[in-house]
Structure formats: C-alpha cells, structure tokens
Amino acid sequence: MLKLLKTIVGAREATVKYPFAPLEVCPGFRGKPELNAQQCIACAACVTACPANALTMETDTQSDTRTWQLYLGRCIYCGRCEEVCPTHAIRLSENFELTVLRKDDLYTRARFTLQRCRVCQRPFTVEKSIALAVALLVQQQKDAANLSLLRQQAAVCPQCKQRAALAGCDGLTLSFSNKEQR
After folding, report:
1. What residues have CB less than 8 Å from 39, skipping those under 6 apart?
2. Where is each 4Fe-4S ferredoxin-type domain found (predicted)?
C-alpha cells in the first residue's frame, strides 16, 4: 500500500491543458502544407506526386497565368509534395488547427505569370522556371557571350526549337513568321 501511495504522489499530470496552453507536437509532425510562392517555379511536380489530388494546377492562356491550388479538404498530409519539390517551396508545418468557417478558406492559391515564346508568341511555361534554368546554366558557363544566347534560346518554346532543328537552323536565328507556325 505504501508503495502504491509513493507512485501516485510521484506521478505527473496525465492530461495537457491544450486549449489554454499550446500543444507541443513531436519532431517530424506533418501538419498543414505551406507554399512559399517566391521559391515555387510551378513545375507541377507536387501536383503529379499528390496521391489524394489535393493539389491542382490550371493554365489560363488568355490571361497568361498558371494557378497552383491546394485544397486542404482532400489533403492526407502524406508529405509527397514536400519530398518532390525541386526548389523546396512546399513544407509541412506543425499547424494542425485547420478549422474554418467557410469552405473557401480550405483553399490556398498562388498565381504565376507565363512566358510567351519569342517566335510564335504562345505561352509555354512559367517565367520563373525560365529564369531559374538560365541562372543554373549561367553558373556553369564562364563565357559572358553565351549569356545572351542562353536567354534568347530559353525564351523559345519546345515546338519552335523542334521546328528550327528540323529546318536545319543553327539555333541562333529562330525566326519563323506567324503564317509558318499555323
């Protein structure tokens, strides 16, 4: 009996004061996904990897925008989006209090501007992804003369590059008329 009494006196509180005090979560806890739109290049790797289809990406060629969207109502907090993001723009926070009053508050959106092809003037990718690709190539290139060539070639869509290659173009002069494009 004395032994049981010592155990009871030495025991700490079994419950936490959660609503009135912050709750500590374990390391590696997977909470609400958060997007850093400044780092995101809208490559859609996270959209492809999401098993619950909570992430979507829509391209509007009329307004030259691509919209990244997360719907928390479908998210299963698996962390695949965080794993596959090449720029580490998505991370799972420790936030688990996700109650909202309106369904629209479950959506997180980010808009990105599309780059238009300098030959055919069609939007083909996000401007930030082109800028990142050029920056990575510039780091490897030591010749400043190639810098302007890299920027010119990066502003051309894959279809126009393919047409130029099939036409025997040297890659420097990618100039088709709009009539040849259609």
Report:
1. 87, 88, 89
2. 31-60, 66-95
Residue 13 included in any domain: no
Angle between helices 127-140 and 145-154 (to 10 degrees): 150
In a domain, 2, yes or no: no
Q: Indicate which CATH number applies to the domain containing 46.
A: 3.30.70.20
- Alpha-carbon distance 44 to 87, whole Å? 12
User: CA-to-CA distance for 29 and 93, rounded, in angstroms?
Assistant: 8
The CA-atom distances, in angstroms, between 170 and each of 126, 175, 177 are 26, 11, 17
The C-alpha atoms of residue 115 and residue 162 are separated, in whole angstroms, by 18
Tokens at residue 59, please?
A: 């391209």
Report pLDDT for 149: 82
d(CA 176, CA 67): 30
pTM value is: 0.75
Average pLDDT along the chain? 86
For the segment 16-47, what is each residue's pLDDT rounded down to a tens digit?
888 888 888 898 899 999 999 999 999 999 99
> What's the per-residue H, E or C state across 102-114?
CHHHHEEEEEEEE
For residue 12, is pLDDT > 80?
no
Number of compact structural domains in the chain: 1
Which of 17-21, 26-30, 97-101, 173-177 is the least confident region?
A: 173-177
